[in-house]
Amino acid sequence: MIHRRQFLTSATLGAAALLIAPRLVFANVQSERRFVFIIQRGAADGLETVIPYGDPALDGLRGQLALDTASLHKLDGMFGLHPSLERLAGLYGDKQALFVQAVASPYRERSHFDGQNVLESGGSSPYEFKDGWLNRLATLLPKSKEEAIAFAPTIPLALRGAAPVSSYAPSALPEAPDDLLMRVGALYDADPELHKLWSRAMETRGLATDAQARQDPAGVGKTAGEFLARPDGPRIAMIETGGWDTHSAQKGRLAAQLRGLDTLIGAMKDQLGDAWNQTTVLVATEFGRTAAANGTGGTDHGTASSAMLIGGAVKGGRVLADWPGLAQAALYQGRDLAPTLDLDTLIATVAAESLRLDPVLTMRTLFPDRPINKGLNGLVAA
Fold first, then answer.
1. Which residues of 275-298 are buried (b: 16+ CB within 10 A; e: fewer)?
2. For residues 210 and 13, what is the distance between their CA atoms, to the nearest angstrom?
3. How confident is the model over 50-76, as pLDDT tens digits?
4. Residues 90, 372: Cα–Cα separation, whole Å
5. Cβ proximity of 306 and 100 under 8 Å
6. Single pTM value for the model
7. Helix axes 250-272, 217-229, angle to 10 degrees
8. Residues 241, 144, 312, CA angle at the centre, nearest 5°?
């Protein structure tokens, strides 16, 4: 049985074909709305995702990475979506997807570990906080006395904090035979406390086995959608995806990564059914990549990137960007897309509107001492 009101879980899946080792994190709170955060670990190239084809400097910077403009899903007169994102392009046409450009967290260096720490913790600098903004978000909603649980060897940073979390990791030892498990269960039947603990362990084992059987992007999306669609299921989810660090051979690798992301979100939407209309999915990465291609067919660590909002609750069909341009003089440190929008305030605004929370309180709780941007209001339907 899944705990009804407060249930935090993480299911560690094996290596997926396209999205390396995705991991699911759920939080159960009292709400009919769903909020999903997908993190792209490795610094995804936002210039190759939401492509500013209307900027005259783009092709000169991108060289062999430049895509044929005719192959893009045109969003407006400036931006086009990567050809791999077919389902997201359809959702944009249905006004259920919104794309954001030139966005960045407060982090301005180029370390993946430090950048992810800032993004997950909600601090202004690496290791400023020991807990995560996802855990702090859960504290803003009604909770039960049930203890949270994570299916992972260690609890992810985003889940650490005041909300109680316990962990379970599948053992490397051989599986116990079913008849042995049944006999042990029979021994515990007469003891109320031991019976309760044993039953919970068996439920956890079953969930982990089921999740590990679904290792491809469609399976991950389906698993997330199944949990989120349940009447008594979780309402907050985080999906970790890897493989976005494209220093070489970026053209093919990024196309495959984006196709996997497109498949994952599409499968989740299909599984959610009518609950999709109550759902917001936010996709973001720790930082972007250099504006110019490098000498090995890839890009190096940069600064600003793109983010995505997808879902039936999103007021989509538009691109949100204070576009800084790609002319040499406009680049950050002469090499990166310059940030013009704060990722922290975007996350807080979307989380507050998605779960019908006070935006000022949400910003103060998730990202203490960071300024809120009230001009972002109206991204999600009330």
1. bbebbbbbbbbbbbbbbbbbeebb
2. 10
3. 999 999 999 999 999 999 999 999 999
4. 31
5. yes
6. 0.84
7. 30
8. 45
DSSP reduced 3-state for 209? helix
Read off the tokens for 28.
């159960």
- 367's tokens: 């990202």
Q: Which of 46, 42, 89 is nearest to 307 (CA)?
A: 46
Cβ atoms of residues 244 and 301 within 8 Å: no
Looking at the predicted structure, is the pLDDT value of residue 175 above 90?
no
Helices (H), 57-141: 58-62, 86-93, 112-121, 133-138
> Which pLDDT belongs to residue 352?
97
Q: Which helix (H) or strand (E) holds 193?
A: helix 192-212
**Which residues are bridge partners to 241 per DSSP?**
40
What does the block give as tokens for 73?
């899903």
Highest mean pLDDT among 118-122, 147-151, 228-232, 240-244: 118-122
* Bridge partner residues of 23 (DSSP): 12, 240
Structure tokens at 157: 């940073």
Mean pLDDT value of segment 6-20: 42
22 Rama sector, left if φ>0, alpha if ψ -120 to 50, beta otherwise: beta
Which pLDDT value is given to residue 2? 42
pLDDT at 8: 43
pLDDT band, very low/low/confident/very high, at 210 (cuts 50, 70, 90): low
